[in-house]
Amino acid sequence: MQVTETLNEGLKHEFKISVPASDLDAKAGAKLVDLKDKVRLNGFRPGKVPVAHLKKIYGRSVMAETIDQTIRDTNTEIFTERGFRLAGEPKITMPTEKDEVEELLSGKTDLNYTVAIEVVPQIALADFKSFSVEKPVVDVSDADVDDAIKRIAEGSRPYNAKAEGAKAEKGDRVTISFKGTINGEAFEGGTGEGIQVLIGAGQFIPGFEEQLIGIGTNETRTLKVPFPKNYLNEKLAGQPAEFETTATLIEAPGETTIDDEFAKTLGLESLDKLKEAARERLTAEFAGATRQKVKRALLDRLDESHKFEAPPSLVEEEFKLMWNSIKAEMDSSGKTFADENTTEEAAKEEYHKIADRRVRLGLVLSEIGEKNKITVTDDEVSRAVIERARQMPGREKEVWDYYRSNAQALAQLRAPIYEDKVVDFVLELATVTEKKVTKEELFKDEDGEKTAA
């Protein structure tokens, strides 16, 4: 066998390989001998079929198998000797001319092919004990608990019918019946009976709720509202519609008394128990936000400490996944790059940088995990599946069966568990210092905007 490296540029390599026909013939012959004891042919006793006869019948298929196995074994040997870790599947170029293929399958010519690969670079891991990470911490205050309960109460507030002759105002709940038309023609889904509308909640298409302000009980109005251009129903998107609307009931929001009785309506014994539950939920919410901040800080530190060329094919694959998602989201919302104060070219450049960072961090985390024997157990994956199932009451078995029969879906569950375990491993070595911050600071993203309430 002769191996010649024809390309060595960065992470890209290409080899030209030649395997003598005699080697292929010997391997194919061994396969035919092994086959002799397995096949059954009319006119021959078991195990007594001449190899020459087998070669006439199975020679081409056996040679094809031999060539395929030889290529795989040879490539593995080449990559292992050089310590290569492949970034993707090798690209193999074989003879394609009919005569060349025929001579190769007939064992009359050497096997000549090329293999092109892209490799993962060698990664020198940083000293994680030198890392310093700041951990933002927020204590749940009594005011936070009170605010949370007030939000619950607002969502549970009662509504009472307004006095005869009263008109609807912003914040009122109006029960309506309506018939919608476009260019005088009724359309599917354009009618409704006994529909409750909370004026100002933004639950209906823009402009609908505002035109109900001032309407009285049993009053009929024609509301003129265009459907948004990005409306999910493409037949209605952008169309000017008219809704003949009658208000059958107008209710004003009442006040909810936050006391033991209110807590009982939520299934809790008392107001104190409600406060305990609210504090627990807020504590978990703050802890989750803290975890995300610490993880982001650590990933930034890993990014700064490991600068190397990421395999271009992996970066491009990651970019395409992100870009397709971004384009689909923009098409759905009707937004343009100009709306985001950028251009398509500038956005592509930015997402290429993000893709490059993701790939490099993924390789670093993988290297850390591999060198420190970090693994994800089947029990950990099973717990993740159970948690997913719990999020879909009544469909638990469906969720469980989906993951049991879908290896790719299981891999998608395993990946974040693995990442978190590697992150925890590094954090144990790093110096983590706590810093008291405000709730507003904790829930601000990197651009200074709130990421959660």
From TrEMBL:
The keyword Isomerase appears for this protein: yes
The reaction(s) this protein catalyses: [protein]-peptidylproline (omega=180) = [protein]-peptidylproline (omega=0)
GO MF, any single term: ribosome binding
GO CC entries: cytoplasm
Listed EC numbers: 5.2.1.8
Keyword terms, alphabetized: Cell cycle, Cell division, Chaperone, Cytoplasm, Isomerase, Rotamase
SUPFAM superfamilies per the UniProt record, alphabetical: FKBP-like, Triger factor/SurA peptide-binding domain-like, Trigger factor ribosome-binding domain
Domain of life (superkingdom): Bacteria
Gene3D superfamilies in the cross-refs: 3.10.50.40, Trigger factor ribosome-binding domain, Trigger factor, C-terminal domain
Main location: cytoplasm
Cellular compartment(s): Cytoplasm
Annotated GO biological process: 'de novo' cotranslational protein folding; cell division; protein transport; protein unfolding
Domain PPIase FKBP-type: residue ranges: 171-250
Pfam families cross-referenced by the UniProt entry: FKBP_C, Trigger_C, Trigger_N
Record PANTHER family: TRIGGER FACTOR CHAPERONE AND PEPTIDYL-PROLYL CIS/TRANS ISOMERASE (PTHR30560), TRIGGER FACTOR-LIKE PROTEIN TIG, CHLOROPLASTIC (PTHR30560:SF3)
Family, as annotated: Belongs to the FKBP-type PPIase family. Tig subfamily.
Domain comment in the entry: Consists of 3 domains; the N-terminus binds the ribosome, the middle domain has PPIase activity, while the C-terminus has intrinsic chaperone activity on its own.
Role this protein plays: Involved in protein export. Acts as a chaperone by maintaining the newly synthesized protein in an open conformation. Functions as a peptidyl-prolyl cis-trans isomerase.
Protein name, as recorded: Trigger factor
Species whose genome carries this gene: Bradyrhizobium septentrionale
Top-level taxonomy: Bacteria, Pseudomonadati, Pseudomonadota, Alphaproteobacteria, Hyphomicrobiales
